[in-house]
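Structural prep section.
Before we set up the soaks we want a predicted structure of the protein with PXG in place, mainly to decide which crystallisation condition to try first. Input record follows.
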Amino acid sequence: MAALTTNQLEAFWLPFTPNREFKQRPRIVTRAEGMYYFDKDGRKILDASAGLWCANAGHCRTPIVKAIQEAAETLDFAPTFQFGHPKVFEAAAKIAALAPQGLDHVFFTNSGSEATDTAVKLAVAYHRAKGEGTRTRIIGRERAYHGVGMTGISAGGLVANKRWFNALAYPADHLSATYSRQEQHWSRGEPAWGAHLADELEKLVALHDASTIAAVIVEPVAGSTGVLPPPKGYLKRLRDIATKHGILLIFDEVITGFGRVGAAFAAERFGVTPDLLCFAKGVTSGAVPMGGVLVDKRIYDQFMNGPEHVPDMFHGYTYSGHPLAAAAACATIDLYKDENLFGRARKLEAHFEEAVHTLKGKPHVADIRNVGLAAAIDLDGIDSAPGKRGFETMKELFFKHDMMCRVSGDTLAFSPPLIATESEIDEIFGRVGAALAA
Ligand code: PXG
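Run finished without errors. Recording the C-alpha cells verbatim:
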C-alpha cells in the first residue's frame, strides 16, 4: 500500500484527535485479524481496546465477514420507513432475546450517539403520550459520556465535550460521579463505597419536581471517563428512586453491552432492569455501524393506540436497521453464542483483574479499576500539562510496544476483544509496565 500523500492526510479532520500532532507522525493501521492490527509494513499491533470498545468478537471474524458480503450482494439497501426486510426483524428478535425480560422492542440507530438521543426522545414522548408533557428534563451524571448528539452532550458530564456547545444545551441536571479515590483506591470490581450517591436523585426531584423530569440516564459502568464500576447497590437504589417518582431509567450500555462485563448486558450482570437500554459498538463487533434502543413493552404499547395509518413514532434514520448492519448483527450474536464469548469474558475476569493490578506501584500509577474485561489505569498527571503523560504513554505503547490502547486525559483504558487468551492479557499489561518504566 502506498504511503498517504500530504493532501490526503490534510483532507481528513480526525475526530477527538489533536490533528497537527497526528499528521506529523500518523498512527495508521491497514488490516486486522483476531486480536491484532497490522500496519502497511506488516507490523503486528496487539489490540488492547477492541478498536474503540467495539470489536468484542475480535477482528474480521469469518462468519461476520461472510454475512456482510452476502448482504451486500443480495440487498444493498431497503427502507425501514413503511417497508422492511427480513434481517432487521431477525436482528431485533435476537437482541431482544438477549435482554432482560420486558425489554421486548428494538428501535435501530446507526451509532451510540443516536441511540442516546433516541432514548431521550422516546422517554419525553412517552410521558407526553401519557398526558405528562411537562416531564422533559433529563438527569445525567458527572463524568458521563453519552455521545455527541445534543441530548448526549447535555446529559453527559465531561466538560471538554460540553463547554463549546453549551448554548445549545437540552435541559439537564446531574448526579455526582460515583468515583472517590479516597474511598475506592485500588478497588477491584464494584467498590463497596458509594451506593448512597444514588440518593442524590431524591435531591434533584426535590429541587426540580418529579413532574419536570423525564428520565435519568447512566452508564452502568462509566466507560470513556476511565472505567468507573458502579458502587455495590448503587444501580438498584437508582432504579427504586426512579420508579418511585415515575422517572424512566435509561441504561447507556453502548460500552457495557454484548459481553464487556461478562454478560449480554450490565443490566443482567448487576440485576437491575432499566426502562430503555442503549446499545451500539459490540452489536456488530464494530464491523458495520449500528446502534439502537431496547424499549420496555409498556413504553412501546403506549404508542400503539393512534390511528392505524399514522406513524406511531415520528423518529428514525434512513439507515435504521440497514441490511448490512442487520446481517452483521445477526452473525455477530450467533458468534457470541457459538463461542460462549460472554461466559468466556466472565471467566477471564479474575485473571484480567490480577494482571492489571500487578501495575500497582509502577512509576506514575495513581489508581487502577476494573470490571468484566474493562480496566483503567490513572497516571499521575504533569501539573503544567494535564493529559500529556497519558498521551505520551499511548504513543509509546503504539510505536515501541506494538499495542493499541485508549487514553482519556491521564487515564489509560483497556478493553480487549473477548477472545483474548490469558497470555495475551499478560502481554497487554506487561507491555504497559515496560512503557511506564520508559
Ligand atoms: N454512549 C456511551 C456510553 C459511549 O461510550 C457513545 C454513547 C456514543 O457512541 P457513538 O457510536 O456515537 O460514538 C459512546 C461512545 C473511548 C471512546 O475511548 C468511547 C466512545 C467512543 C469513542 C471513544 O472512551 N464511546
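Observations: The CA atoms of residues 7 and 73 lie 33 Å apart.
Flagged for discussion at group meeting.
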